[in-house]
Automatic annotation (TrEMBL):
GO terms for biological process: methylation; tRNA wobble uridine modification. It catalyses: carboxy-S-adenosyl-L-methionine + 5-hydroxyuridine(34) in tRNA = 5-carboxymethoxyuridine(34) in tRNA + S-adenosyl-L-homocysteine + H(+). SUPFAM superfamilies: S-adenosyl-L-methionine-dependent methyltransferases. PANTHER family: METHYLTRANSFERASE, TRNA U34 CARBOXYMETHYLTRANSFERASE. It comes from Shimwellia blattae (strain ATCC 29907 / DSM 4481 / JCM 1650 / NBRC 105725 / CDC 9005-74). The keyword Methyltransferase applies. Its EC number is 2.5.1.-. Keywords: Methyltransferase, Transferase, tRNA processing. It is an enzyme of class 2 (transferase). This is tRNA U34 carboxymethyltransferase.
Amino acid sequence: MTDFGKFYQQIATGPLAHWLETLPAQVGTWQREALHGQFKQWMRSVSFLPELTPAHLDLQNGVCATADAPLSDGQKTGIEKLLRNLMPWRKGPFDLYGIHIDTEWRSDLKWDRVLPHISPLAGRTILDVGCGSGYHLWRMVGAGASLAVGIDPTQLFLCQFEAVRKLLGNDQRAHLLPLGIEQLPALNAFDTVFSMGVLYHRRSPLDHLWQLKDQLVQDGELVLETLVVEGDENQVLVPGERYARMRNVYFIPSALALKKWLEKCGFVDVHIADQCVTTLDEQRRTSWMASESLEDFLDPADHSKTCEGYPAPLRAIVTARKP
């Protein structure tokens, strides 16, 4: 079973201490009542991984760990088999002792787009909402964050995160909690809050923006990355049952409409930092994620459209400040 005790100790004396009034009980309920049917099997694979401390750890240019002496072929084969038990791997990539986890998403490309536009992360306490396997948490640590906390209710992602953490020397600068944003009280304690790839899955996007704001300290920064469409400040796409084969896509605003939403929720200094079309180099099928990916979600005759006929995925990065 995953042990969150070290995280509780870490936050017990800082600005997050009041979270301990609710968090342990929530996690306890999750452990008793909400475990996925395969969770124990996934965590068994994590438990069989060796505890390795990297001689060289690079979190600035990727998530890359190496040892002074290369692992034997047998060691690498054994570790890779255990990591493949945790497929599909969607967010990465990870380079661990000569094992390359080639994930569906090149999340490093997103990070390279985000980093130039945000306040320096050195010394900051950070929340990453919907963090997936935690790839960006490690990049945040690499950018100098003192503590990076991710929340994501998908339990496979927690197991993937714990597997990577074990291979990074049990690093305690990043933590992943199996929670959704709606389970967090108004903590008002994070210097930077990231929400990347989440907003379009929320039935009430303005409520999501308010929830994010409630986690920030005064003058804290929100970093929002999400699907958008072309158009003016009143343009919002409301897809049918599916968008690019994804269920639960509710509202896709234009970047200008998103700016207006953020201002309506009381954010200031709202800045549209970047817009780009998702490419087949950034999201694709790999041997670590062998099911359908972006190419299968687009119109085969016209990649400017999804298979349902909507505009192909266009993503924006928007930053804002809580006054």
